[in-house]
Design a protein that fits this description.
Layout: H1 2-22, H2 36-58, E1 65-70, E2 75-81, E3 90-96, H3 113-122, H4 126-136, E4 143-144, E5 154-155, E6 161-165, E7 171-180, E8 187-188, H5 191-208, E9 214-216, H6 230-247, E10 254-259, H7 269-275
Parallel strand pairs: 2-10, 3-7, 3-9, 9-10
Antiparallel strand pairs: 1-2, 4-5, 6-7, 7-8
Helix pairs in contact: 1-2, 5-6
Length: 278
Amino acid sequence: MKNVLRIILALFYGLTVVQSIASIPMECKLEPLHDPWCYIVCVFVVGVGIFIVNGFLIEGYLKRRARIRVGAVGVEVNVSYGDIFNENGVVVIGVNDFFDTLVDDCHISEKSLHGMMVKKYWGANVGALDMQIEDGLTGKKYETTVRDGMAKEKRYPIGTAVFVKTDGGKRFVLVAISRTNAETHRTQSELKDLNVAVSGALDVARERANGDTVSFPLMGSGNARIKSPEQALFNVLLASIVTECLEHEKVSTQVNIVLYKKSLKNMNLVSLEREWRI
């Protein structure tokens, strides 16, 4: 709807421009503007041109990707809209602090990225995923919390991360971002947890990504239930990634933030590139 209004506004500007030209004295203006159809076509062409230029270069509503170059360390952070599971390289997924794998809309929601990952890649063999998680968490500190008979009882600190891989070669870093209520299984996070989770995920990615692209979703916006607007989550996520790139060993030459198509639809990616020039 907003783009429809933008098109109407652009056509209005086009009408203003063409009308200004048409009002030039007869001896100076273009003869074809006497033709009504030519006049209408000119208004349409100028209006569409204004819409496109504004959409890609000024307000950014047609732009689908922003590139932020962290020149000091040779890293490019790309912000785009799409499906995180279509990304190549290593994909970061936020999970709860028990690293649960039971997708039953109680322990894990099937609508969460965590739940979708488990069902999509390990639906028929969750045990194989559990083995990889258990192996990857060996030696990491935890506390034991009694839960129901089907739930895991080892609770790990926020920021704990583990690398897992599917039989088809799809690679993930699972990072604890949310605390789980042992009785209700409801998860909750704070904004500061996002920063810790990014740091923990990138620590593991440095060891296991082999320099390949690392992709983040907008963590905290789903079942992690961070009580902050999506724009604030995005700002913290981006700042955390850039800070990690500047202060620690490089993970890869490219880190992606992949936004769901309904997230931050009004964000100006042109301004984002301009504001984050490093």
